[in-house]
Amino acid sequence: MELLPLELLATGEQADVVEVAGSPSWVSRLAELGIRAGTRVQVLRSGSPCILLVGGSRLSLRGEQAMQIMVQPVPATVPLPHLRAPIVECS
Amino acid sequence: MVLLRTPTIALVGNPNTGKTTLFNLLAGMRQRVGNYPGVTVETKKGKLHHNERSFDLVDLPGTYSLAPRSPDEMVAVDLILGHQQGEARPDVVLAIVDASNLERNLYLTTQVLEVGVPVVIALNMVDVAEGQGIKVDAEKLSKQLEVPVVPIQANKGKGSAALKNALAAAIDNPTTPKGPTFPAVFEAEVQSLGAALGKDVEPFLIRRLLLDVGGYAEQRLTDQHTDLQGKIQASRQRLAAGNCAVPAIEARTRYAWIRQATAGCVQRPQVRAATWTDSLDRVLTHKLWGTLLFLALMFIVFQAIFTWALPLMDTIDQGREWLAELVKDAMGPGPVRDLLVNGIIKGVGSVVIFLPQILILFGFIAVLEDCGYMARAAFLMDKLMARCGLSGKSFIPMLSSVACAVPGIMATRVIENRRDRLATILVAPLMSCSARLPIYILLIGAFLTEGHAWYVPGLVMFCMYLIGLVVAPLVALVLKRTLLRGETPIFVMEMPLYKLPSARTVVRRVVDSAWAFVYRAGTIILASMIVVWALLYFPNTNGAGERYDELIEKTEKSVEKQKEELEPVVDSLNKKKKEVQEINKELKSGGVGSLFGLLGPSDGEKQELEKKRELLRTDIKRVEEENESVQKPVKDAEDRVNELNFEWRSRSILGQIGHWIEPAVKPLGWDWRIGMAAVASFPAREVVVGTLGIIYNLGEVSSKDIRDSDDPGRTELAGQLKEAKWDNDPNRAVFGVPVALSVMVFFALCCQCASTLAVIKRETNSWRWPIFTFVYMTVLAYVGALVVYQVGSMF
Which residue from B minimizes the CA distance to A78? Predict the structure, then answer.
């Protein structure tokens, strides 16, 4: 399946975050809030600003920022958005 | 181990995890608020008592991470590291985490573990998590994290005994926790940088230096070590080449560690249960319904401020007058009495008078914030506020400033972004507050009512309010593009779960803000009131060396006997006048008992009331005519007193300043008297009405009289203003429509309000911003008044 910016998801849709682009401080702030590659998110209200369900919390982001999060949509039948953290070792 | 000093516990955690509730639970109601120079955040301190021992408890600002991006965020790091001046390094850190969102909450905890201070974890909201079908095995989690984990329900007070035991144990037998380990390549870079920086800099700070690109650790340390920047860049490049690029490496390491440490500890349901919050959000965050509900809510809040605060403020005003009379009767005339009456009692009164508004607004804000609604309001208003470079969080502070900028500015604390918060603070005083109302009412009543179309008064009043609504966002935009320019703040806002507000938290918040205002701002307000008093009081003798206060006292005494005779007449007149006022009020606003003034009297009732009013008015006139002969000497004496007052004030230092600045205010169409009144109104703009009263020989006029009079255009002051002439040209009237407009525009834009400036000083922790606000608003006001007068005189 192709990648989409998070902003293009409709209300109710779920997706896995593939990449967070943007300045380093923005990337780390989102990571602190749980949004990073591998996180499953659900859009509770689309638009700008939007509301996302991440882990157990609801976060609100603006459109220009949601544009920088690339996601892979997940069929709605897959239950439960929760946090997943793949382990990548450094070489 | 036995400590000789009181052990310190620092409380850290994400926002919305019940941190404040836990702090209140542990520390009780006796708390202190601490401020640090150069930052706007506050830390609260309290004492925790357990088994006859006591500990110092410090509540750090809620944060998602210990990666400092601003001086404000650095406070938490400095406190934990023991770098904050005057604060001991904590002996144990109490990390509060939300059980329903464990992984994300533990992110901050892993950073705390890295500092090397013993840590105790309070696993909060286990009941909320269980409601969602999430179960956390605290015992197993504690084993795997190698840190004590205590399940609690802070809002119900459950688990506090176990938590206190765990804290005491951690202090008595401190153990250094083990946090996540960064890859070896990363640690090698930390060591080589550490060698370059010397022993004083902790490994924790060096990791932050490497990880936070453009962060506060980098700013601060590169200021001290000039060659550091190049070394950091080289390190980061080597890390990127080794597949360990910052900042990704941090999240990767921490979340991997969290996943291992929580493995098998958390049970989740297969399908997420729909919660209360989901159903409520469906309506409350809806673009149309949510916005309508929000506006309705705001209407109720402001209606409440006006209907509940105004009577309280009038009561305070009356109390102040009563006290002033008491002092006047008890003491002889002289500087001390005058200082007490016109300086101190007036000054204290003008501080206390803000309390009803502050208490009511903060009551509402505290309830809305604690139940979780505030984030939804900010969400709804974000799009609108983004147009002037601010975020949704600025909306409520700006709107509150329409009632009064003081609580509005205090309400900006919800804005985390420093630049956004400053911009909001700096433009909030432009919103047309209720203290401007008496000036508008007086001048519109005097110059823009009679002989003008019926819609003119309302239109002018509307325009005056519009000035603030238009200029404030424009100034905010300019500030954000110039002085407060910087990276566009990242707008990420967490929307907490809805919950019932806790009475303890709400009361605490309201009491804190009221106290903060009285204690910190109150002193500055009082000081400025006393300075202006002195400028208006001295010199207190006339050319012949006679003291004005004694002359006035003598004149007043000379007619005392006649006055006594008149008293019953005056009393009955006043009573009748009051009745007329009551009728007017009813006619104007609404029927008796209608809480929000929404329901007016019916037409039949109106006619009845009007008839009654006419009868009362003729009655008043008759009595006044009958008593004219007795009233004459009293009236003469009163005129003499007013004349003396006028002479005194115009010879005072402030009066001289008024003459001196006349060339500067002439382009605005003002004479020295208006200039002086404007200067004298520095402590509070509503004072201008009273000062105009004095300089136009009427004695003190209170803004309440103007507000309550049924026809402000016919009050004595309005009449005097209409007849005022220039000193050097007795045929030329001072006031006309352009001058009235110019004065109104000036007061709409200026910052003649010591309370606002004092609160800005308090909230920004520096004198720079109140001075800046005063200067830019005065310039704006001058230019605005100049344009209005010059353009207005062309017609």
Answer: B271
The answer to the question of residue A12 being in a domain is: yes
Q: Please give the backbone phi and psi of residue B116, each rounded to the nearest 5 degrees, phi first.
A: 100, 5
Q: CB-CB: which of B214, B278, B495 is closest to A60?
A: B495
Contact present, B155 and B21 (Cβ < 8 Å): yes
Using CA atoms, how far apart are residues B604 and B582, in angstroms rounded to an integer?
Answer: 17
The CATH number covering residue A34 comes to 2.30.30.90
CATH architecture group of domain B8-172: 3-Layer(aba) Sandwich (3.40)
Chain pair A-B, CB pairs under 8 angstroms: 145
Within 8 A of A89 by CB-CB distance, chain B residues are 183
ipTM over the 0.85 cut-off: yes
The minimum CA-CA distance between A74 and chain B, rounded to whole Å, is 15
B561-615 pLDDT, tens digit each: 777 777 777 788 788 888 887 887 777 665 444 444 455 667 777 788 888 888 8
CA dist list (Å): B571 to B563, B574, B623: 11, 5, 12
Pairwise CA distance, residues A81 & A15, whole Å? 9
Residues 53-82 of A with CB under 8 A from B: 54-62, 65, 79-82
Structural domain span for residue A42: 4-74
Q: Give me the numbers of helices (H) and strands (E) for chain A, helices first please.
A: 2, 6
pLDDT digits 0-9 by tens, B273-306: 778 889 999 999 999 999 999 989 988 887 777 6
Residue B422 pLDDT: 92
pLDDT digits (tens, 9 = 90+) for B109-154: 999 999 989 999 999 999 989 988 899 999 999 999 999 999 999 9
